[in-house]
Amino acid sequence: MIRALIVDDSELARFELEHQLRSHPQIQIVGQADDIHSAEALIESAAPDLLFLDIDLPGGNALQLLERLEHIPPIIFTTAFEQYALKAFEFNTVDYLLKPIQPERLAKALAKVDVPAERQSLLTPESQIFVKDGERCFLVKLKDIRCLEAVGNYSQLYFGAHSPLLYRSLNKIEERLDPNVFFRASRQHIVNLSYVEHVEPWSNGGLRLKLKGGQEIEVSRRQSGVLKQMLSF
């Protein structure tokens, strides 16, 4: 089952989409929102597996909302505006549907949505990832990766003296990582906690991590609170 939210200021549009989704029993609608503020609160509280998201909403632009979120679920945009498509794919976007939504296009978009993370097995520290970087190939164990960084829709892995690009989003990789080992420091970074050598207070109430090897990673203010709890500060 894929738990989904619908965010659209049009009651009719929400009703029509919900009606179409009845033909897709793998989708469970767990909430609806009609403006930016209620959408942000609902996304944070419900932690959906999938977001159906209109762009032009009361209270602001949905793309601005996404920039504020720590964790962005997979998104199917549902909008009447073509001009945001390029920008939309800078986020965790599955598809971009123009209204009126055709059932065939909706079905194709849903076919791209993966099984939610928590229903897949987590990778272990001994699990290996195959990475190709130009002419070079790596088979790297998770325990050897000290940090992962978001680069658009891709991710850069840091291990040893190497930093190849993996053609998967940081959010998608995070779904398979053990949260007790790999910590989401911010929208940009996931850190292997076994490589943290030093923690210090940083600007705006956040923290900064110094990793073995000298790499420094800033932790967002929100995630700093989570980290303090994890490490029993």
Describe the overall structure.
With 233 residues, this protein is of the alpha/beta class. It has two domains: 2-113, Response regulator (Rossmann fold, 3-Layer(aba) Sandwich), CATH 3.40.50; 143-231, LytTr DNA-binding domain (OB fold (Dihydrolipoamide Acetyltransferase, E2P), Beta Barrel), CATH 2.40.50. Helices cover 24% and strands 33% of the residues. The chain has helices at residues 11-21, 36-46, 62-68, 85-88, 103-111, 170-174, 221-230; strands spanning 2-7, 27-33, 50-53, 56-57, 60-61, 75-79, 93-98, 128-133, 136-141, 147-151, 154-158, 165-166, 182-184, 189-192, 196-201, 207-211, 216-219. The longest helix has 11 residues, at 11-21. The two termini are 37 Å apart.
- State the CATH architecture of the largest domain: 3-Layer(aba) Sandwich
Largest sheet features: 5 strands, parallel
Uncertain spans: none
Specify the structural class: alpha/beta
Based on Cα principal axes, name the global outline: globular
Say how many strands there are. 17
Give the strand order of the largest sheet, numbering strands 1, 2, ... along the chain: 2-1-3-6-7
Distance between the termini: 37 Å
The CATH superfamily of the largest domain appears as Response regulator
Cα radius of gyration in angstroms:
19 Å
Number of spatially distinct domains: 2
In short:
This protein is α/β, with parallel strands linked by helices and 233 residues long.
